[in-house]
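Recall from the previous lesson that a structure prediction takes nothing but the amino acid sequence as input. Here we apply that procedure to Transcriptional regulator, LysR family from Desulfovibrio ferrophilus. The sequence below is the only information supplied.
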Amino acid sequence: MELYQLRTFIAVAEEGHLTRAAKRIHTSQSAVSGQIKALEEEFGVPLFTRSPKGMIVTEQGQTLLAKAQQALSAADGMLDTARTLRAELTGLARVGLNISAAHRLRTAEIMESLRTTHPGLTVHFINSMSHLIDADVTEGKLDGGFMYGEPSNELDGLEVDRTNMRVVAPVQWKDRVLGAPREDIIHMPWVWTPPECPFNQVAKALFGNEQPAPNAVTIADDEALLLEFAAAGSGLALMCEDEARAARDQGKIVLWEKSPGSVPLYFITSRRRSDDKLIRALRSSVQAVWHKTAVTA
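The prediction returns the following tokens.
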């Protein structure tokens, strides 16, 4: 006796017809008939009586039908328990990255953590921007992602870091920038960021509400573009401190001495999917790598 034979027995009993049972379990009518016959021979009792209207379960069949249902339920429950014990998780996870320099987000460490705990899971890392990652996680296009700034209300945010911002300037402006007061800095030409960019909030704080609009020579929403324009002499720009210091050490730009503020770095997931095994696995690995406690935002 095999489990698939018991499934066939139950399907025929519930459908009352060989053809409908065969369609339900995606096999042929002859295979269904052969499995019922094999069970009747093994049990030594008739399970059905055949009539022009279909298959009618016998009295002995009714007794065995209840046992068959119990056996399948127990087998399915055992498989569910085994999956839970193995923490089996397969498929594809889509994670947005708001920084092209993936090492700053510890993606290799996160991937290694997931491979250890969920070897059947594949992760697709997708480069994007903070405000787009926020929207895509909300809409379900991404399972999780990193972003600067505060996440939307529909999202759970795990704050993993806080990044200081720095004002970067062309090398040829060194004498104008180093030691310059804030009043001079805010009146210089700027490579500005769009309103949805988290850097924009820090820039606005630097300027202050009472100040005139910045002298924006261009607008860019990518950190690599901000660096490229600043290095080319277009104007000042705001960058994360790690990237700004690296660019300075390479002789591409100079740094104003003061930090105008900082932005939080979050790993975000959908709040409505908080019980999803995939979401729990992603958050657990990020927490393990960053050694942080979840902060719901």
